[in-house]
Amino acid sequence: MLRILWLQSGGCGGCTQSLLGSEPRSLFAELQGAGIEFVWHPSFSQASDGEARAILEACAGGAQPFDVLCVEGAMLRGPGGSGKFHLMAGDGRPLTDWVERLARRARWVFAIGSCSAFGGFSASTPGNPLEACGLQYDNDEAGGLLGADFRSAAGLPVVNIAGCPAHPGWVVDTLEKLALEGLTASDLDDFRRPLLYAEQLVHHGCPRNEYYEFKASAQKPSDLGCLMENLGCKGTQAHADCNIRPWNGAGSCLRGGYACISCTEPGFEAPGHPFQETPKVAGIPMGLPTDMPKAWFVALAALSKSATPKRVRDNAVADHAVIRPAIKKTGLK
Amino acid sequence: MTRLVVGPFNRVEGDLEITLDVDDGVIAAARVNAPLFRGFEQILVGRPPADALAVVPRICGICSVGQSAAAASALADAMGLQATPNGLLARQLIQATENLADHLSHFYLFFMPDFARPAYAGRPWYDAVARRFAAVKGSAAADVLPARANFLKLMGFLAGKWPHTLALQPGGSTRAPTSAERIRVLALLRDFRSFVETVVLGDDLENFATLDSADGLAAWADGRTGDFPAFLATAADLGLDRIGRGSDRFLAYGAYGLFPAGLWQAGGASTPLDPGAISEDTRHAWLAAGKPRHPAVGETVVDADNPDGYTWCKAPRYDGTVAEVGALARQAVAGHPLARDMIERHGASVSARVVARLLELASVLPAMEGWVKAMVPGEAFCAHASLPDECQGAGLVEAARGSLGHWLSVRRGRIDRYQIIAPTTWNFSPRDAADRPGPLEQALVGLPAGPNAPPTVQHVVRSFDPCMVCTVH
Ligand code: SF4
Questions:
Q1: CB-defined contacts A:B, below 8 A
Q2: What predicted TM-score, i.e. pTM, was given to this entire model?
Q3: Which CATH architecture has domain B2-471?
Q4: Could you tell me if A79 lies within 8 Å of chain B, comparing CB atoms?
Q5: A114 vs A137, A152, A160, B160, CA distance in Å?
Q6: Average pLDDT over residues A168-173
Q7: Do A14 and B60 touch (CB under 8 A)?
Q8: Which of B10, B113, B149 sits opposite A42 (nearest CB)?
Q9: Are B103 and B201 contacting, i.e. CB atoms less than 8 angstroms apart?
Q10: Where are the beta strands (DSSP E) in chain A?
Q11: ipTM for this model
Q12: Per the domain annotation, does A330 fall within a domain?
């Protein structure tokens, strides 16, 4: 059995809510079947009050063994380094102290969601008065609460299952991979996100790809066109498989009609421009696709704009298809 | 007199600690502490106004859509923009999906597991209830989690994802479902209806929604198979319809065009909502003190050393008085006869709060089916306008846990002030400058507590379905 201890701090609890939607089986049955169980989880477990404190104390002291420490939410070190912005209820010690003690006992430490990985929204108030950070990152700099050199007992740095929220599949698959065959540094990318979801771009599999090809762009919220040129989409730069692994059955941000705001990347919460607008220089989007030289992009965009079929051009600026694909009468070759 | 500090509370959203003064095994006074501070109002100041749509859902992972809806309404108010009819229907569907999914999660995952506590071993219902509702291991999870996930597929079609969608916009929604998708959304609603009718209620939604008195409810539940009738039998044995009374003044901002806005008190008629009567007091929060302020001119300034402070939560008041919000408040204000009868007999109680959530499942689900059918394919889902550089707006909506308000001022094209009053801020409010305790603080007084007490406090706390992460936005 792989035993999980889960803590929440400066976050919204959304990664847990998301996780509960794991499909197709009930989350609890699925994890149990894969040999995974919760020692304690703040939203699921029976134990409350003194019972919960006793479990945490036993884990921190070594009497209760566990394998994976999962932490959701940013680490709040303020005010003035006191940790008082989040004291453990019923206990009065800063949650940051608990995380440090427990991380020393854990065989693996997982940051669940972008808050716990990189700091997220809690760290984005000007001047960061909450003194918020991630477990092992402060935005895109290694460090954070546990420090750049931290390695858990199994020898890995903190595994960052980044996302705001994390997709249930990212968490469940990573835990199940660990239970099945282990996890090594080569399973993680440069920001220590599991490659099983971070080796894709959000752009991969986006239903707006045909509009992208022709640079047929949406102009206003609810338009069907590609959201990169005007409405802030970072899908060609953001690492995640959101358009390959559906959200809530058939969804994704792009399928929902709004931009990818790159919520799996450090610093996504403070983009330096309005979330739903694309920053441009001389009319050209600043955030060009990963792996693509600017000159090529510009040349291709000009060419494809000039070749855009009327169907694609017109549908791009409507909220439903106004022109259907033509039917060829001669049999398809 | 002894002082007990209770916490952490599992199975509530976020962090909660309660200090109890106990006299001879009975609670004499309670102080509610929200021990985590998040500071979202400061995160918003200085940002472009439309960024609120991306920021505020992240206040809360369980009522993320409620937060979106409040921000979208506040922006629409500031722009003087009306959402399109299709956009309004889409927004109602998205909000209702979240609210009903939350009601379901609350009942099965947060509230019922407390009856599986060993303290109740020996009660006639215990074995069956523990087998069904024990946390994680009970048989209900295998039914409920897939039903919840399937229901949330509405979000996949209408909102892209849940939580944290950007689909709700001031002018409506970014997502126009195709006619094929409307058919599939209706199928999902039928699937969820069938789950609620067969597993939760053991009766048709429409039949249950017309129950009009506490006696009628008891007769209806008698001998009926279903998870909710099982709760009612347990609650009757433990007398949960008589405990948990709070301020007994109920506030609602109005929802879906089905439930009106207003204030209601037992024995009277509802009075219309006056948004100008809302204020917040910081005397007992770790925030800079001052006169109570209307949220449109409210401030959140940290003072971690405030000697009177015992929580990060402000004390909202309506017309200077304490008010309870939530499903029970919505149903009481709307005049649902069952909700009002339960309150008039014994005040707001653990049972009444749970019953009201089930009433909403039964009455909102059929309305949702109607909204999907009312969408007109081909017509716009989103209206557009630009935001003036200097403006103000308010967005008052109902999240699952009750009334949620956002107040926004824009100067020179940037957010100058953003104030939020969340549902649990009302319900788990601390004392105000006049030392009047909040609804939960009142509801706990007189209950048993201490080493050998039954877990009554746990039931009362969770009957409010608190969301602490919102409280301390
Ligand atoms: S909307 Fe974004 S993810 Fe989709 S095709 Fe355009 S750039 Fe790619």
A1: 260
A2: 0.96
A3: Orthogonal Bundle (1.10)
A4: yes
A5: 10, 20, 8, 19
A6: 98
A7: yes
A8: B10
A9: no
A10: 2-8, 36-40, 68-72, 75-76, 108-112, 132-133, 137-138, 141-142, 159-161, 280-281, 284-285
A11: 0.96
A12: no
